[in-house]
Structures are given as structure tokens and as C-alpha cells.
């Protein structure tokens, strides 16, 4: 009997599911059923990805709170998976207390490592709205392909961006020109993990081709340190003094959902959780 962990991708809670989501998620359910039938011990988990600027932005546009928006879609997703007969052992959400507690514990330990440091960086700010503008709260022109891009990424060419890289950046809420103000953030030193990450990618030849290619490309182009925190109201509190007005950056918490949800699935058996991971 084998211990099998299956993590279904977490749908993002700012819009309804469509057939494309289901097509991508179904193979994991088939796999879970196969392993259960074969007598293996399966932990099949997933959940709704509830934080980040797309939910916050949508809430602002609809005159609702981000909690209302993400809860609405979380309920819809859970109901949809139930009706379709998905066999998750646990389906959670990143706005649950279980997930938030897990993430804060994890980050506290992470900040004690030599890979996390503080840095003052220019952050987009809207005088008209009177607030910092994280990621998608800024829109502008991509410096790489000239397409319309947001403050975190260009969907047209896939380029990872910062708001200060955009040409003609404006506030996504009110359309005003933006300015930049200094803000202190925690960063993770990815460039110092280059060799470990390279070894990790090279030792997993069974990864899907596009996962391999993307990972190799990021390493080849030079890993850039990434912010772990954001000037946002919506998200998980940063467990660090002086960061009361900031939140953990979504990329640094949503993928921890595989850990937090399997811990929740196995809450009566902490030893099984440790063994699984
Ligand atoms: Zn582009
Ligand atoms: Zn504005």
C-alpha cells in the first residue's frame, strides 16, 4: 500500500468555472479513484484560491467586499464539484482560518532563514484613490511586446513585470496617472537558490514538457528576487512587526494550500501528514 498525495489545481475565486477548468481538473480525480481502487492510501485535496488583486479589484467594481466575492465563488465551486461527483478528500479555501494559520506559521519560520531580507522599493500609488496600487491595480503598455499589460504580468507575451516597467501606467480603479512612493517589503533571494532549483528541475525528467521548459527558461534568464509581501488590504496578515498594513503576496501563500489542506484532511492523524510530505 502506497501513500499517494494528489493536489488538484486551485481555481481562482473571481469568476465561474467553465468546461476548460473541469477538463484540466478531471484527470486528478481519475487518478485518485484508481489508487483507492488499487488499495493505496490516497489524500486528494484542492480548494478555492481567494486572495489577490483580481478578487479585490472585482469587489471594488461591484461595490462588494473581497470576502463576499470570493465566498460566492467558493460556494459555487464546491457545489459544482459536488454535483459532478469529484471525490476530493478535502476541498478548502485560502481564506479559511486553517489555511491562514498554517501560512503564518510557515512564513514566520521562513523569515528566520538567511534567504529573506527587507528592501525599500518604489510602489505605485494613486493620489486620487489615496492608496498603494499592487499588481493588477495598475495597467499600462508592455515594454516587451507593446500589448496591454497589468502591473504584475503581460498576458500577451507572458513577461513578468513590475508596475515601474510599464509604459503609460494608470490606476486600474479610476484611470488617473500614478506616482511612486517608497515602501518596505520582504523579499526572498531566489538568485541564491539557483543551483538547488536547477538540480530540482533536472532531477525530475518526468515533469510535463511545458513545466520543464518554463522552469529552465526562468533559471536561464536569471532568477530575480521576489517580494513576499504586498501593499494590499485583502490577503493574509504578515507575521512580522512593522507589516501591519501589508499582506502576504498571493503566490507565496496559495500554493501552500496543498500543505494546509492535506494537514486539514489528516487532522486526526498528524503522523500521516508528516509521512505524506
Ligand atoms: Zn507583453
Ligand atoms: Zn485611482
From TrEMBL:
Catalytically driven reaction(s): tRNA(Met) + L-methionine + ATP = L-methionyl-tRNA(Met) + AMP + diphosphate
All residue ranges annotated as the Methionyl/Leucyl tRNA synthetase domain in the record: 4-277
Alphabetical keyword list: Aminoacyl-tRNA synthetase, ATP-binding, Cytoplasm, Ligase, Nucleotide-binding, Protein biosynthesis
EC numbers: 6.1.1.10
Extent of the signal sequence: none
Transport listed as a keyword: no
Primary localisation category: cytoplasm
GO cellular component: cytosol
GO molecular function, one term: methionine-tRNA ligase activity
Top-level taxonomic group: Bacteria
The keyword Kinase is annotated on this UniProt entry: no
Listed InterPro entries: aa-tRNA-synth_I_CS, Met-tRNA_ligase_1, Methionyl/Leucyl_tRNA_Synth, MetRS_core, MetRS_Zn, Rossmann-like_a/b/a_fold
Gene3D superfamilies on file: 2.170.220.10, HUPs
GO terms (BP aspect): methionyl-tRNA aminoacylation
Top enzyme class: ligase
Compartments in which it is found: Cytoplasm
Family: Belongs to the class-I aminoacyl-tRNA synthetase family. MetG type 1 subfamily.
Stored PANTHER family: METHIONINE--TRNA LIGASE (PTHR45765), METHIONINE--TRNA LIGASE, CYTOPLASMIC (PTHR45765:SF1)
Protein name: methionine--tRNA ligase
Organism in which the protein naturally occurs: Eisenbergiella tayi
Amino acid at each position: 500500500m502506497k501513500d499517494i498525495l494528489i493536489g488538484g489545481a486551485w481555481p481562482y475565486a473571481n469568476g465561474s468555472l467553465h468546461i476548460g477548468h473541469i477538463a484540466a481538473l478531471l484527470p486528478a480525480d481519475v487518478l485518485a479513484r484508481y489508487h483507492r481502487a488499487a488499495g493505496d492510501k490516497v489524500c486528494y485535496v484542492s480548494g478555492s484560491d481567494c486572495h489577490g488583486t483580481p478578487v479585490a479589484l472585482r469587489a471594488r467594481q461591484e461595490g462588494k467586499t473581497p470576502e463576499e466575492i470570493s465566498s460566492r465563488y467558493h460556494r459555487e465551486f464546491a457545489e459544482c464539484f459536488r454535483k459532478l461527483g469529484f471525490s476530493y478528500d478535502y476541498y478548502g479555501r485560502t481564506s479559511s482560518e486553517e489555511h491562514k494559520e498554517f501560512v503564518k506559521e510557515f512564513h514566520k519560520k521562513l523569515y528566520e532563514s538567511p534567504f529573506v531580507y527587507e528592501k525599500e522599493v518604489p510602489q505605485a500609488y494613486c493620489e486620487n484613490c489615496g492608496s498603494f496600487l499592487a499588481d493588477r491595480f495598475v495597467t499600462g503598455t508592455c515594454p516587451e511586446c507593446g500589448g496591454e499589460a497589468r502591473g504584475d504580468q503581460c498576458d500577451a507575451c507572458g513577461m513578468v513585470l513590475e508596475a515601474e516597467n510599464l509604459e503609460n501606467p494608470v490606476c486600474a480603479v479610476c484611470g488617473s496617472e500614478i506616482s511612486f512612493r517608497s515602501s518596505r517589503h520582504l523579499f526572498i533571494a531566489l538568485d541564491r537558490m539557483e543551483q538547488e532549483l536547477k538540480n530540482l528541475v533536472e532531477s525530475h525528467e518526468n515533469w510535463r514538457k511545458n513545466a520543464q521548459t518554463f522552469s529552465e527558461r526562468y533559471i536561464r534568464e536569471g532568477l530575480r528576487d521576489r517580494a513576499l509581501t504586498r501593499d494590499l488590504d485583502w490577503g493574509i496578515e504578515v507575521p512580522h512587526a512593522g507589516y501591519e498594513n501589508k499582506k502576504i503576496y498571493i503566490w507565496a501563500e496559495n500554493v501552500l494550500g496543498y500543505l494546509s489542506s492535506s494537514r486539514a484532511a489528516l487532522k486526526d492523524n498528524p503522523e500521516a501528514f508528516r509521512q505524506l510530505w
